[in-house]
Amino acid sequence: MILCMTSTNETKLSTEANKLEDCILRISQNDREAFTVLYKEIRASVYGFALSVLKNCHDAEDILHDCYLSVISSAGSYRPCGKPMAWILTITRNLCLMKLREYRRMGELPDEDWEKYLSEKESVSHEDRLIISECMLTLSDTERQIVVLHAVAGFKHREIAGILGLPLPTVLSKHSRALKKLKAHLTKEDHFVNDFPSAHFVTSAPPAAHINAQSASPAQERNDHKDGNQESQ
Amino acid sequence: METKNLNDKIKNAFTNAAPDDPEAALSLYEERKGNYMIQAETKKSNTWIRKFSAVAAVFVLIVVGCFGFLFYNVNYAVDSTISLDINPSIEIRVNQKERVLDVIPLNEDGRVVIGNMDLSGSDLDVAVNALIGAMLREGYLNELSNSILVSIDGSNTQKNSQLQEKLTAEISSLLNTGTFSGAVLSQTVTANDDLRKLADTYGITVGKAQLVQQIMNTSPLYTFESLAGLSINELNLLLESHSTSESTVSSVGTASDKAYIGTDAAVAAALTHAGLSSSDVSALKTELDWDDGAMVYEVEFVSGGYEYEYDIDAKTGAVRKSEKERDDGGSRPSLPSDQTPATGDYISVDSAKEIACAHAGVPVDGIWDFSIDFERDDGWSIYEMDFKYDGYEYDYEINAITGDILKSEKEYDGSYNPSDGQQGQETLISEEQANQIALDHAGVSATDVLFIKTELDRDDGRSVYEIEFRAGAYEYEYEINAATGDIIKSEKERD
After folding, report:
1. pTM of the predicted structure, to 2 decimals
2. DSSP string spanning B388-436?
3. How far apart, in whole angstroms, are the C-alpha atoms of residue B435 and residue B420?
4. Do A64 and B18 touch (CB under 8 A)?
5. Is B31 inside any structural domain?
6. What is the pLDDT of residues A166-175, one digit of tens each?
7. Neighbouring-strand partners of residue B492
8. Handedness of CA A25, A28, A33, A39 (dihedral sign)
9. Domain that includes residue A174, residue range
10. Which of A103, B78, B110, B160 sits between 20 and 30 A of A137, alpha carbons compared?
């Protein structure tokens, strides 16, 4: 009886996680419907995170697809532990790092095509564009990833620290700093955008963002190895 | 704005930006993996039929299994795996009879090379012929990059070396085209789990991982990470340049260095920088090396009592590093020059640093401007280190195997750690002040600016505001010294 009660409590706490785990289980049994449910559940988080790492919509879409494929093909080996989303986002992160590595091998960096892409996409409202471009321009790579993991994927700071391989205090301070910056910019930007409705999106991103991407990637890659080792153990 | 509200808005924005087409993702998957997703409905059938067919199937399996085992072993079991690397990486699996079971692309370029070819069932010779042909056609092998790595992985050692020899001969004859001749590296893979794990992590073949490890043995400053991304041609050049006697890779032909300026041009660039002519210098030495993410020629020579050391960018000819130092007439005893430098168990960079600091009596974490080089010549493997501490410049050479100090120098240069000096006494101008300085210089008023980004950065011990903004049709970039307000850099560019 007591056992029953504890399990119902936990179920209530983590219905979302359970729903996803159920999906993964059913996907491993070739259930198409479960795939569609999973697709809807994770697309914003995976895409948002990939975009915040790569700053390229085209690549982020590729990552989204590859991530689905990885989830489908490794669904059978997933062991339920109450954190399906962390599992999926770790896959996403590894895919992104692979992509960055590929770019570096070719000696180039991904084009930052998000401004053009967003201005062409119909489902993206004016405000959406404003918010995404603020995330892209005002935040550092790590800040942006933290903000997206928190707001879009709904992760707790502790989980974000785990996924990004950062200490918890770093995540906390970076997150609060990032939110402060965003708030300040968004209130300041309001009148700009009213004055120059289109100016913000037709132009290309400033070059400094490239430098950020370059300097951020080696550190991320080292973390990636750590992740990889842990998984294989 | 409320944080909750902001988080919701961010979530909404990314949700709206994300693609929403589950069907496309599903069909993409099915396209790649064939019929993995079997419809659940087809599983429904009558129980007795299922039971009967199960019994029948077991019976058939036993019969077929007995006869099939031998047949399978000869025809369908993977006997050897051969991988070809240039940048396209392709794995060929063959059976005992050297017939191709499967050709697997290991990266995107490999996929391009294979294209629509279906090589399963053909002879290994034919398959290799077709693949090399495709690589030439697609331009992966050319005058500038002519090296290919062939790695054989199989259980039978004797057969491995036979295959290695045969394929090397065949591929080099295929690559002796009219316009250029190829360089073939070949090896037998002795894969262990560590190597496989490394290969997996970096998305390269086990063969390439083994080659990378081979080259890493020649210098402790190389990391797997930095070398894994190089092309086989670049790795081949490094291998040639650091030739060791312990190599397990056999090499036919010479790697192309036509993409680079060449030794002569590198020497000329170094001499020009030093203001010397070739008749002034002696003990000239050059070596191709991979340093800080670029191929460089290391050029060393002696002139007028000074030792010069240059790193010349192999592609552009730019001087990446220059050092000039009084030649102390051989502080390290010279070993017979025909002795090959020993490779193997080097002490780590960190321990070399500790040894030098301990000798100098300075704290390891207090030094600045630390730089380290690794060199193998005259029978020695040596770490060369420079660093500064408390007004002095130190110069050390440490035996990279024993840790012995071969040279130590201490020279007063009066420089103090720039970051020490600044933190206490300096007051920085504010972000607004920095912006104003940039705007004044640009002749733009704040109301005309569409977008401004300001960052405080510590660069070379200085505090610098990096400012970017857009006004009119131009993009501006400024760097402002945060202590003095001086403009360090200004750029204006048409958007």
Report:
1. 0.44
2. EETTEEEEEEEETTT--EEEEEEEE-----HHHHHHHH--PPPHHHHHH
3. 27
4. yes
5. yes
6. 888 899 999 9
7. B476
8. positive
9. 122-205
10. A103
